[in-house]
Amino acid sequence: MAVVEHYPALKRADAPLVSVCVAHYKGPELIATCLDSVLAQDCDFEVEIIVHDDASPDDSVTFLRKRYPQVELLVSEKNAGFCVANNRMVAHARGKYVLLLNNDAALFTDALATLATAAAQQKPPGILTLPQYDWESGELVDRGCLLDPFYNPVPNMDPERRDVAMVIGACLWIERGLWDRLGGFPEWFDSIGEDLYLCCAARLVGLSVQSLTESGYRHRQGGSFGGNKPQGGRLASNYRRRRFSERNKTFTLLVMTPTAVVWPLLLTHVLLLVAEGLMFSILRRDPRSFAQIYLNVLQEVANRGSQLRTERSKYQTSRVITFSCYFGHFSLLPHKLVMLYRYGLPTLTHNTNH
């Protein structure tokens, strides 16, 4: 059983409206700007800040305890992964609402006030996010995301569209009671795609997933996990990110897709995934990518067959929205084709980040 040390805040908010939860692994320079942006919020309600350090191999814990004594610090003895870290923080939180914030993100000064105002008007409560802007360029990255048929996120750039299929976990606002009702992040995902899973679960039971048009946050895309951002006009990622991404999107497709189309869609997805893996390994002369990323998806689905059937039964039994409503936030064009046309084949590197 993992040991989690707790370093309580020097001064705790009496009745926080919002608990800002920041999962951290390695790199004090990443989280400092993040926490400073939370402390600089212009809002008239109490906020508590919780940080989960996931066994960082550097001096992150010492840095946080010394520079941010007002932060509740949870320190894990072993690296548990992003999903476990966030679940632990929400379980520890006292606020009515929770904002999950990446350690490589920074909020605009009116972010919490904007989210709280929107949440108070949301009946029933759902999931919210803010416009995401690139850290270096300041350009708009997305206003939440739609999905393509194979559950690849498609950035929403339409300022008039608030209802989306999913929001990025780098800035995810949710009522704590709703988080508990939906079951939080699936810890068997480890990392990547947990935001997709949670948002699909919310939408299945008829709850809204929205991106606001006001305020925003800056994000070093890929700063905490590597990849996920074009560099020099090319896509760059790493084996670990791609392995988790392809696996967890497949899990989500299998569990969340309404029965009418799940099996033909899953079959098409698997065939395209195998074809993509073969093409990539041949053109990049990298046969290990097929085994480590694409073949791994099939192995994981087979290994977790019983669990996936149980999860599917749980979510499909509770589904209240229609087939057409569920897919109303999907785009028909496969997003991977768009990215291939724009940037060509991605380059893959090894990465040891959280």
From TrEMBL:
Residues 19-124 form the Glycosyltransferase 2-like domain. Signal peptide: none annotated. InterPro entries: Glyco_trans_2-like, Nucleotide-diphossugar_trans. Keywords: Membrane, Transferase, Transmembrane, Transmembrane helix. SUPFAM superfamilies: Nucleotide-diphospho-sugar transferases. The chain crosses the membrane at residues 251-275. GO terms for molecular function: transferase activity. The keyword Transferase applies. The keyword Membrane applies. This is Glycosyltransferase.
